[in-house]
Amino acid sequence: MKIFILIIVSFMFLNFNSIAQCCSAGNPVGGDGTQSVLNKNDLSVNLYFKHSLSKDYYHLDKKTKVPYEYYSYYDFNYLSLTYGLFPRLSLYSELGYFYNKTQQITINNEKEIIRSNGLGDLLLSFRYRLIQTVKPVSQLIASCGIKIPVGPFNEEIDGIIIPVSLQPSSGAFKLNTGLFYSRKRLEKKTGWYSFVFFEYSNIIEKGYLTYKYGNFFQFSLAGTYSILKNLTAIGSIKMEWREKDKREVGIKIESSGSKIVYFCPQVLYIISNKWYVTAIVDLPFYKYINGYQLTNKLSYQLGIRKDF
Amino acid sequence: MKDKIIFIPAFIKSFFIINITLIFIYGFSVSCKKKEESVLAKPSINLAIDSIVATKTNIVVWEEIYITVYTTGKNLTYKWNRNHGSMLQVDSSTVKYWACPSCIGLNTIECKVSNEFGTVSDTIMINVKAKK
């Protein structure tokens, strides 16, 4: 039972981040948030599908109209592996593929479509279990990792290199660190967990492009409820801060960076001892956008996990 | 006072005359060489970018402009790139360019033109300002 609860608590945190960025469907950031640490030589394989839609232009906290109509989305599939190196230390890796990363622009009633596909970024991170208690069931896990831009960053259509935001790879090396805490009493159906995450991006210098994504910070607080023995419902509030991006000679891009708050309902179903399925929806309900930017409308994610 | 007559030996006279002649010949050859160097090389007729021209180079956010590359050569392929802004193809040598609010600043648009003789490239700068 204890292991069962631990698995639920560690598995339920399966959120990607959605980026509010001009003309962008966004590249998922910083892993799936699964902060499980496995026993030595244990292996866990996750396969997920994510769809994200960005539609509305925002100025500060209000929807605004722009001359062109933008409609942006992506379909992303990723595979992640978690392997227990030592009893308290696990290695997490993740690599995804964009089936399509698409932007539809309507200019003077004419629709133009810019589309790319390819590998995203490779994430490698270490997770270390700092604290674990049995009564109540709790754990504190720290993580740090690197994101490597392995995917294509020079996709073109009709002889025109497509915008950075639509390239499958983010084009930048990124460092991230996180702290995850979960707590649940065995005799109760409810529990909670919290997660903080920070990501620092390196500068992209390619040809005439000099670009640095702003620092990213995320805080999440979630409550869990065991509806049935093998079915758990989770509701979480996720807050994201992104600082302004910078271009050459450190010039800040005024229309970049944001503060967004999401409500993320989620269900987790345990098929058998080693198989799990999950579904999550990210619904932004408060957005504060610097300048004018295309923002995320919603995203959902379906996943399956197998433990070995 | 008696005028002094300076006697210059014949071999010294010959030495001066020969030297002055050589200096003239050298000077003439150098001036001829300079004329040869100042001749301008003809531009390649196989592959060249003559110019990149934009309908405007100072624009505001969401304003559309057209950028055309004028070239010399046959069987040309064009590749356009920029650091900020959006582009759509109009025809092989012309693109439509505009910038959203996150692309404010001095932006570089590059065009690379290639054929069997190689690749040449040129750039144009477009200054994008916020809408008042």
Describe the structure.
Chain A is mainly beta and 308 residues long. Chain A has one domain (2-307): Porin (Beta Barrel). Chain A has 1 helix and 16 strands. Chain A has one helix spanning 2-11; strands at 43-60, 62-64, 69-84, 89-107, 110-133, 137-148, 156-157, 160-161, 174-184, 190-201, 203-206, 209-212, 216-228, 231-242, 258-270, 275-307. Chain A has an 11-stranded antiparallel beta barrel. Chain A starts with a helix and ends with a strand. Residues 3-26 and 29-33 of chain A have low confidence and may be disordered. With 132 residues, chain B is α+β, with helices and mostly antiparallel strands. Chain B has a domain at 47-129: Immunoglobulin-like (Sandwich). In chain B, 21% of the residues lie in helices and 45% in strands. In chain B, the strands form 2 sheets. A 4-stranded antiparallel sheet of chain B has the order 1-3-6-5, with no helix packed on it. A 4-stranded mixed sheet of chain B has the order 2-8-7-4, with no helix packed on it. In chain B, strand 7 and strand 8 (118-129) form a beta hairpin. The model of chain B has no long low-confidence stretch (mean pLDDT 83). Chain A binds chain B through residues 21-23, 66-68, 105, 112, 156, 158-161, 163, 207-211, 245, 247-248, 251, 253-256, 291-293, and chain B through 62, 77-84, 86-89, 92, 95, 98, 100-105, 108, 110, 123.
Write the layout of secondary structure elements.
The complex is a heterodimer of chains A (308) and B (132).
Chain A: H1 2-11, E1 43-60, E2 62-64, E3 69-84, E4 89-107, E5 110-133, E6 137-148, E7 156-157, E8 160-161, E9 174-184, E10 190-201, E11 203-206, E12 209-212, E13 216-228, E14 231-242, E15 258-270, E16 275-307
Chain B: H1 10-37, E1 47-54, E2 58-60, E3 65-73, E4 77-82, E5 86-91, E6 94-98, E7 105-115, E8 118-129
Parallel strand pairs in B: 2-8
Antiparallel strand pairs in B: 1-3, 3-6, 4-7, 5-6, 7-8
